[in-house]
Amino acid sequence: MSFQAAITNLVLKATNDGAELVGETEVDQMSVSGWIEKAQAEASKLKELNETLTPKTYIATNYLTAADVALFGALYPVVAGLQTQEYYALPSITRYFDHIQSRPAVRSAADALQQFPVVTFQLENAPSVERKAAEPKQKKEKAPKQAAPEAAIPAADKGKKAEAAPPAAEGEKAQKKDKKEKQKKGENKEEGSSKPKKEKKPAAPAADEGEPKPSMIDLRVGHIVDSECSLSLIKHPDADGLYVEQIDVGEETPRTVVSGLVNYIPIEDMRDKMLITVCNLKPANMRGVKSFAMVLCATSKEGREGGIELIQPPEGAKPGDRVYFEGGDYEDATPLPQLNPKKKIFEAIQPGFITLDSKAAAWVNPATQGVHKIRTKDGVCYAPTLVGASLS
Do 230 and 378 fall within a single domain? Predict the structure, then answer.
């Protein structure tokens, strides 16, 4: 078994044993996923990692997560081979590693796999870590303002100076008076003006007003993130029928998506899969995990028992590619940022989704019976085998 596979097994075992290690919030989940991806690379940069860990108890959040399990696994062969003086020189890594290996979830998983035995450290004679206090910033002293020398003022003018200058208050009053008079003159000009006032333009109607259209739905090509040492695809910890996937839809970070496909599509057929996602549904909480998109699937005309398949993008499609409906009314339309759940736009459009005899995915307009294939710039999206299937 490769070292990478050993780390993956450790992460999966710790997670499957019931430890909620994925992350409690969306931000935490992204941080955990990011650290899992780079754990092995970071474990090779010991000095930098030692500095990173100095203020931390856990690497990705303020509690134990799968990121710590992955980083512990990645560090294991390095730390286990260090001599006493070498791990003395890395106090933060030593402290972190010793803490993580003793956590029940990690220890239980390591023992069950009969790998990653406990590493012992001789810390009794470890040198104390010196922490230099930051030097206090010195405030710059402002130079005192120099008064004009009296010698520069003629003696004869010293007494006249106060008399000649008008009081500041009187000058301000005069300025305010002039300003008011100018404003009054301006108002009188406007009253006598024959120019009509500009009318305000009416506000543009909301984009989701009127009849629901398929082009209001934001469909994109997605890709289930492929990484051995990652929680890119797991079974939901609290729901036997749900997968939790990390799907790349062309954004900076993958979206967490929950799909009820465990009983219909084996996990090995989900890994590294290209698919179509609905990206503008309102995020939904699925048994404690927030889902930020929906996977578009074809369901057999005989029902779920007849089979469910992932709708596939055409060859050459990339994550984030726009998916649209053929036809002049829809091809160039911009989807809504988010579908209003109260208006049930997706629910109104969905009954027209179908796979054709060619297995191409399409929407049939119920009013005109016009067929609008679902496609990207590279070609038509399709179901692998199902004909006459409904899409949802």
Answer: yes
Contact criterion met (CB below 8 Å) for 15 and 70: no
Measuring CA to CA, how many Å separate 211 from each of 127, 214, 237, 323? 74, 10, 40, 21
Instruction: Give residue for tokens 């503008």.
Output: 280
Is the same domain home to 236 and 354? yes
Q: Name the E strands within the chain.
A: 219-224, 233-235, 243-248, 255-259, 274-278, 284-286, 289-291, 294-295, 297-299, 308-310, 322-325, 353-355, 361-364, 371-376, 379-380, 390-391
Contacts of 5 (CB under 8 A, 6+ apart): 228
Token pair listed for 297: 């699937």
Burial of 337 (0-12, 13-18, 19+ CB in 10 A): exposed
Write the CB contacts of 128 (distance below 8 Å, at least 6 apart in sequence). Answer: none
In 3D, which of 360, 362, 339, 337 has the Cα closest to residue 352? 362
Residue at 161 is within a domain: no
The chain-wide mean pLDDT, for the chain, equals 81
Asked whether the predicted pLDDT for residue 297 surpasses 60, the reply is: yes
Q: What is the DSSP string of 270-308?
A: TTT-EEEEE--SPPEEETTEEE--EE-EEE-TT-GGG-E
- The alpha carbon of residue 47 and the mean position of all alpha carbons in its chain are separated, in whole angstroms, by 29
How many domains does one find in the chain? 2
Residue 197 within any structural domain of the chain? no
Whole-number Å distance between alpha carbons of 35 and 27: 13
Token pair for 188: 């009188």
Least confident of 204-208, 233-237, 260-264, 303-307: 204-208
* Nearest by Cα to 14 from 118, 112, 114: 112
Entry pTM? 0.50
Q: Is there a single domain that holds both residue 236 and residue 362? A: yes
Cα–Cα dist 257/318, whole Å: 18
- Expressed as residue numbers, the domain containing 70 is 3-113
CA distance 252 to 202: 37
Which distant-in-sequence residues (6+ apart) come within 8 Å of 127 by Cβ? 88
Write down which residue in 95, 113, 131 finishes a domain. 113
Going 336 to 338 to 340 to 345, the CA torsion angle's sign is positive
What are residue 258's phi and psi, to 5 degrees? -110, 130
